[in-house]
């Protein structure tokens, strides 16, 4: 993934403020040539620097009002297989490998407590999973954000 320079950061800030802005509007706002904006956006997209659009959809809007984080201990040689199996569960939003006692941190969403029970049972049934521990997400205090880092990079 290429490094994001100050111009890229300004471009991403502008997109964050107006996600539906056209290339022409962005070029005018930033004082850049239209082709420059278009090329930079294409490079950012193709390099994976931009997350998929579905990251903007809130699970609550789809009826998943309960969020939880599940730490998973895994038989070490099964880590890749467990990760792949977790990716097959629609309610699993993200899986992160960790250092320490827990091997994986799994962000899940559920409709209600019974649904969360079903999901955790499905996680426990994956071959290679030794133990899980579930913590309910009570309230989001800071939304996922990149604005402060983009501001720093744009300077």
TrEMBL record:
One GO biological process this protein is involved in is: response to amino acid
Chain segments annotated as coiled-coil in the UniProt record: none
Its Gene Ontology cellular component terms are: cytosol
A single MF term (Gene Ontology) = sequence-specific DNA binding
- Keywords assigned: DNA-binding, Transcription, Transcription regulation
Q: What is this protein called?
A: Transcriptional regulator, AsnC family
- Please give one Pfam family short name: HTH_AsnC-type
User: Which InterPro entries does the record cross-reference, listed alphabetically?
Assistant: AsnC-type_HTH_dom, Dimeric_a/b-barrel, Tscrpt_reg_AsnC-like, Tscrpt_reg_AsnC/Lrp_C, WH-like_DNA-bd_sf, WH_DNA-bd_sf
Transcription regulation among the record's keywords? yes
The keyword Transcription regulation appears for this protein = yes
Q: Which residues form the HTH asnC-type domain?
A: 4-65
Q: Spell out the PANTHER family in the cross-references.
A: LEUCINE-RESPONSIVE REGULATORY PROTEIN, TRANSCRIPTIONAL REGULATOR AZLB
- Lineage, top-rank taxon, reads Bacteria
């Amino acid at each position: 993934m290429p490094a994001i320079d100050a111009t890229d950061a300004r471009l991403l800030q502008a997109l964050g403020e107006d996600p539906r802005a056209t290339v022409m509007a962005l070029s005018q706002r930033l004082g850049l040539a239209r082709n420059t904006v278009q090329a930079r956006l294409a490079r950012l997209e193709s390099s994976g620097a931009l997350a998929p659009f579905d990251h903007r959809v809130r699970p609550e809007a789809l009826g998943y009002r309960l969020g939880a984080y599940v730490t998973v201990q895994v038989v070490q040689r099964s880590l890749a297989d467990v990760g792949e199996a977790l990716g097959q569960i629609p309610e699993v939003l993200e899986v992160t490998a960790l250092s320490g006692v827990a091997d994986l941190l799994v962000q899940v969403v559920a409709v209600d407590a019974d649904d969360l029970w079903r999901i955790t049972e499905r996680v426990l049934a994956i071959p290679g999973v030794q133990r899980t521990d579930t913590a309910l997400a009570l309230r989001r205090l800071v939304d996922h954000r990149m604005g402060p880092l983009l501001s720093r990079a744009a300077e």
